[in-house]
Specification:
Distance between the termini: 66 Å
Largest sheet: 5 strands, parallel
Strand content: 25-35%
Number of helices: 10
Structural class: alpha/beta
Strand order of the largest sheet: 3-2-1-7-19
Radius of gyration: 23 Å
Shape: globular
Length: about 400
Amino acid sequence: MRDDSAERLVVVGNGMASLRFLERLTEAAPGRYAVTVVGAEPVAAYNRVLLSSLLGGEVDEAACTFRGLDWYAGHGITLVTGAPVTAIDRAARTVAVGGDLTLPYDRLVLAVGSVPIRLPKPGMDLPGVITFRDLADVAAIRRAAVAGARAVVIGGGLLGVEAAIGLARLGVDTTLLHVMDRLMERQLDHAAAELVKSAMEARGVRVRLLADTACVEGDGRVEALRLADGTVLPADLVVLSVGVRPSVALAQGAGLDVGRGIRVDDRLATSDPAVFALGECAEHRGQTYGLVEPAYEQAEVLARHLAGEAAAYVGTALATSLKVSGLPVFSAGVVDVPEGAEAVIWSDPGAGLYRKLVIAENRLLGAVFVGDVAEQGWCKALIRSGAPLARTDRDDLMFGRPDPRPLAA
């Protein structure tokens, strides 16, 4: 039962950040708020991290589900799905949902995520050009990925790599295009990226670097993709994964302070103290994040703040951990070596193993591991704490800590 005297809290967006916030808020302040969460997608929050596994048939849609509808009901949360919020009236403290629903609020949380970028090139609106962002995109790609289909994935960042791997698992003839000189350039240096490229090619994905798309061609639907150098690649399906932009249109329409994202302070409050933002739509200290971990950290802070606790978000040291065609990959902190720093590197390309530590003033600034990521948790902790390295830390980080068990007599 809801307490009619409880503050009215409306959460716009029902993705991973929103759900983590609701989970923590119901733990920290049960019954304090009358919560309504509104999601534009027709289903409750699901695990976007598993979309590539869903695309490749490794998991089913049920495996992507976080919470059933009974969880929302059991915590007194009203869930509205398939209904985008179209406007915010900050003076009246209401939000307009769909065409005929108006929700009043005392506090409002914007967790509206981001929107995929479509390249401003001819042919990007042809049927068969699909972004890779949500369940509907996965369903559309799978429908197009029929036997004998030829797919081109544009974008060699994290999501593009995962999309190409998922398509290859389906047996689709797949080519990955990337405009930069290495894959995942934000997370990997050249040596690590080359190992990832080799692993993808071993699974049947053709990788073309420094590949600038000129246009998509076709009569009524996708038939080919033309590169700036004149190369034409036959294609029945083009998957766009060239980045995202924070979703700011709703906030802009409400007159909130917006930069690249919706600007927030350390309490995740916007320029209106009754309105908060978190996740991919938020800009904190000039930084926007497109990964799950920062969104979860923000969700924890905002839940504590709205529960009446002292809490501040100070930013996130980014880390990435994934498997590329079965090859474990980890990256955290600085990838390329800044002036005044040194790199400690161990490489065995034949075995698919690579480790790199970036160190300055005896502190770990970054790490890139491929093939063996056993020390990733320790690396993340050292990077985030800024603690000085102990005498044996370099060797232990590079080759693994010694077995604590005593040697047999």
